[in-house]
Amino acid sequence: MSSTKQSNSESVVSNNYFNREFWIKIAFVAISALLWFLTKLSQDDYTDNLQYQIEFQDQKKGKVISDVSIDAFNIEVEGNGYDLLSVNTSFQNSIVLSLDEADKIDDNTYSWDTRKNLDVISSQLPSKFTVKKVSPKNIIIKTDNLVKRTVEVVPNFNVKLESPLRVYSAIKVVPSKINLWVPSSIGDSAVEVYTKKFFIDDEVGTHKLEVGLSQLEDPYVTDPSEVEVQFQIRTFTQKVVQVPVEVKNLPVDGQVRLFPEKVKVTMNISQEDYDLVSAKDFNCVANFEELDAKQNRVSLSLEEIPEHIELIDWGQKSAEFIIIKK
Amino acid sequence: MTGGMGSGKSTAAKIFEALSVPVFYADDESKNILETNPFVKEELSSRFGPDLFPEGKLDRSFLASQIFNNKDTLAFVNSVMHPAVADCFINWCAEQSAPYCLKEAAILFEIGSYTQLDKTILVVADKEIRIERVMKRNDWSREEVLARMKNQWEDDLKEPLADFVIYNSEKKLLIPQILKIHENLISNANAKS
């Protein structure tokens, strides 16, 4: 029993010793590898192919770029390992080109020669890089003329109102139309521009807000760049009126009796307008020109409703009838 | 002519009126009697006390609260009201010169007053449609409608007792059904005279 205990104890000592030594060796190997890697990176004789996105500046007055033959350059460079590593791990590599340096082919076509403007490219790369090759040789840039359009401004809003508060009447935009400069190719399709989103929340009264127009990319210029939106928040309540049905285009000479003769109109209305709106402000019509002979019912339509109300329901949409001939 | 709440008996009555048939609206007349008939006022006051006619005017909400969900009280009010309404109807009929006239009442079969009439017309509609109509018309909740409907008989109980049935569930037109009944009643009236 005593000999078994001794044997176990030796095995534990041996395992501990082995583990510590093993990890120390591993650590030294790792440090050596790192030092070797860092030494290697500091050398300047690395060659790599880099991709750079292209951006343009100095756009021609009254024009906008409509198409570019490529989105990015492939640049072969020689340089320091650290710089190459930093460029390769960067997410935003771009080179800005000036349209002033491009050759004009025709009124709306330009060519940017990469070889002729190699120094422009080199100047935007890390200084230790030597540019060996840039492809493609030429970038073809198409432009479009900007044209002025007068477009409507549409309010873009989010209503967060607790009942019984509601927006009273339509939201007014001042000015309601603005000038917008857009590429001629889409000029006719530009009919409206949205405001930036604004919020309408619980506060009874008249409100005026200065709101910017939705983000349009340069050079989609708007004039003015801000508008005023005006709206009212009022407390609404429910109202019911009985609206008599008006008969139109009775096909025979006689009297007609409709069932129902009145429709019940339920609406939400601002408290200020409660006494101002009555059944007279509505017009419900039974038009016998649109009679469905098979159904023997005449359709009812609510042809007039007053402004600033929110219609909830207006009863049944057809009526039975008796025509009493004269 | 009778029918449950929301069955459309008032619309049917208006169509009869358009055909020059005089219509006696029993419910409207009841309201009038409650306000004006001294015998009725006295009988009801002796049961409900002075709160029923404060300052001489009927307190309808008080009366409604007394009879709502109380069958005995409802039966008492009916026992006072129905003979008065029946008398009023008889007097009104005597004044009419049309071949026939109609009595429109929410309850006819339930109180047995149909036995005093020559013919009975029942207006029926699907229960769900009736509930929806009353909810819309009176701005009541579904529960309120159902509580009031409890005091009326179901249509299938009334149908065997009715001479004519008008179906008013929006699938069938009302006017053709009414014209048919009207012709029948006119020929009956002519045969009698």
In short:
The complex is a heterodimer of chains A (326) and B (193). Chain A has 326 residues and is of the alpha+beta class. Chain A has three helices and 22 strands.
What would you say this structure looks like, in words?
The complex is a heterodimer of chains A (326) and B (193). In chain A, 17% of the residues lie in helices and 50% in strands. In chain A, the strands form four sheets. In chain A, strands 10, 14, 16, 17, 18, 19, 20, 21 and 22 form a nine-stranded mixed β-sheet that branches. Chain A is built from three helices and 22 strands. Chain A is α+β, with helices and mostly antiparallel strands and 326 residues long. In chain A, a hairpin with a 2-residue loop joins strand 5 and strand 6 (109-113). Chain B is mostly helical. Chain B is 55% helix and 8% strand. Chain B contains nine helices and five strands, in the order βαβααααββαααβα. In chain B, the strands form two sheets. In chain B, strands 1-4-5 form a three-stranded parallel β-sheet, covered by helices on one side. Chain B has a two-stranded parallel sheet with strand order 2-3. In chain B, helix 2 packs across helix 5 (71-94). The two termini of chain B are 22 Å apart. At the A-B interface, strand 22 of A face helix 1 and helix 9 of B.
